[in-house]
């Protein structure tokens, strides 16, 4: 695979694309998933409201490729006034330091507005990363979504 050489105004593996997605894919050999992310496709991010709590369900990996989209999604929720968040990570099998940045950013923004971010369904490998980074001391984690939602009462 060729090295990616983004031009100004493009979204290549984390930035905004201004040229044709297929042209960039052909020129730069981007994967279909990278094209979806660049188009703003939010596969793997779902949300619903339960009793005034926003439940965000994530799937796959939280890494340098997916973190910008997740951050943007969370910021949109907070801008709408949805500051009580539950992140269901039961389908997340990996997180990198980019994922940790997503979490810390969400915690700071929600708590600044008298809300919070609570986690549920944290898988073993993700929990290891959270433990090693000290995040388990600042995050509230629950066994299931219902318990996390109830914790806001």
Describe this entry's structure for a reader:
- By secondary structure, the chain is an alpha/beta fold.
- It folds into 2 domains: 41 residues, no CATH class; 106 residues, STAS domain (Transcription Regulator spoIIAA), CATH 3.30.750.24.
- Helix content is 39%, strand content 24%.
- The chain is built from 6 helices and 5 strands.
- A 5-stranded mixed β-sheet has the order 1-2-3-4-5.
- Helix 5 links the parallel strand 4 and strand 5.
CATH architecture of the largest domain: 2-Layer Sandwich
Order of helices and strands: HHEEHEHEHEH
Strand content: 15-25%
Rounded to an integer, what's the Rg over CA atoms?
Answer: 17 Å
Strand order of the largest sheet: 1-2-3-4-5
Distance between the termini: 51 Å
State the helix count: 6
Q: Supply the CATH superfamily name of the largest domain.
A: STAS domain
Helix content: 25-40%
CATH topology of the largest domain, by name, is: Transcription Regulator spoIIAA
Structural class: alpha/beta
**Low-pLDDT runs:** 1-27, 37-41
Number of domains: 2
Shape: globular
Determine the oligomeric state from the structure. Answer: single chain
The overall strand count is 5
Mean pLDDT value? 81
Short précis:
This protein is of the alpha/beta class and 153 residues long.
Give the helix/strand layout.
Layout: H1 21-28, H2 32-38, E1 45-50, E2 53-62, H3 67-79, E3 84-95, H4 97-112, E4 116-120, H5 124-133, E5 140-142, H6 145-150
Parallel strand pairs: 2-3, 3-4, 4-5
Antiparallel strand pairs: 1-2
Helix pairs in contact: 3-4
């Amino acid at each position: 695979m060729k090295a990616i050489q983004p031009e100004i105004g493009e979204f290549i593996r984390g930035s905004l694309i201004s040229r044709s997605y297929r042209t960039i894919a052909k020129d730069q050999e981007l994967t279909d998933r990278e094209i979806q992310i660049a188009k703003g496709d939010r596969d793997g991010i779902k949300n619903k409201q339960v009793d005034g709590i926003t439940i965000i369900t994530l799937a796959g990996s939280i890494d340098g490729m997916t973190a910008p989209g997740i951050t943007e999604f969370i910021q949109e929720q907070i801008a709408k006034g949805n500051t009580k968040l539950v992140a269901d990570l039961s389908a997340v099998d990996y997180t990198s330091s980019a994922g940790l940045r997503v979490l810390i950013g969400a915690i700071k923004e929600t708590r600044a507005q008298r809300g919070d971010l609570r986690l549920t369904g944290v898988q073993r490998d993700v929990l290891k990363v959270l433990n090693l980074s000290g995040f388990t001391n600042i995050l509230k984690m629950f066994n299931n979504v219902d318990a996390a939602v109830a914790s806001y009462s």
